[in-house]
Amino acid sequence: MIKFKFLKLVVDIGNTCAKLALFDKKKLTKHEIIQKLSLEKTINFCGNNKIESSIFSSVVSLCESDYEIINFFDGLLFNNKTPVPIELNYKSEIGSDRLSGVIGANYLFPSKDIWVFDAGTCLTADFINKDKIYEGGRISPGIEMRYQSLNRFTSKLPSLSLQPNSMFKGNNTNESIISGVQQGILAEVNTLISDFRKYNNDFIVVFTGGNASFFEKELKSSIFADQFLVLKGLNEILDYNEKG
Predict the structure, then answer these.
(1) Among 99, 101, 79, which Cα is nearest to 89's?
(2) Structure confidence by residue, pLDDT tens digits, 160-214
């Protein structure tokens, strides 16, 4: 006899792929990255588990097949009208991935001031204080976007991508691009951290996103990296709405 386990399904649809996770209360028990989300793939991911509730989040416009998945699981679609367990001090809508990451960081480090960096297509930096108030942040191009823009908006610069080593200066064109992109984005992050530390020395820095490991390796500052931060935040949002 097949034994079913009651779990929660969390789906984060990003610019390039979808991340799926199963949670047993607060514990992440299974995860997978899918390039092209479909109902069949989502059902296969869930396996023999009984899905008791689910939440879906997307930074791109949803298509008919996406809504088919959400309806099949009777899921909560996270948007700017969804109640969240923090206070927002922000004058416009905030991306679901940014907000989920902040909520995930607040869950991991309650009662702490936190800078949350999401190193993906864009590099976002968001601040939530120890009183659970989100106070905004920054958005700038991510590593790959910086590389692509140099090639796209010039006639002769080559198309490059993230490299394992970030030299201080380049001795040829390729090395100069690598140095400019990778040392440049590291300097951007280091400057934010050091400038903020001048008047607040008691805060935590958390990284997530596809390029989080690059920053974890390169940064001199003490940081935490969690590739599942957004998924954990979505799980907290789901729990909050079920309690409400």
Answers:
(1) 99
(2) 999 998 899 999 999 999 999 999 999 999 999 999 999 999 999 999 999 999 9
Confidence grade of residue 142 (pLDDT, cut at 50, 70, 90): very high
At position 44, the amino acid (one-letter code) is N
Report how far residue 92's alpha carbon sits from residue 98's, in angstroms, rounded to the nearest whole number.
13
Q: Is 118 among the residues known to form the active site?
A: no
Residues in the chain: 244
DSSP per residue over 19-84, as a string?
A: EEEEEETTEEEEEEEESS--HHHHHHHHTT-EEEEEEEEESS---HHHHHHHHHTT-EE--TTS--
The active-site residue out of 66, 97, 126, 239 is: 97
pLDDT score for 3: 54
- Report how far Cα 180 is from the mean position of its chain's Cα atoms: 24
23-50, pLDDT tens digit by residue? Answer: 999 999 999 999 999 999 999 999 989 9
The CA distance from 15 to 238, in Å, is 22
Contacts of 74 (CB under 8 A, 6+ apart): 54
CA 115 to chain centre: 13
Helix 96-108 and helix 229-243, axial crossing angle in degrees, nearest 10: 90
Cα gap 111→232, rounded to integer Å: 17
SS3 240: helix
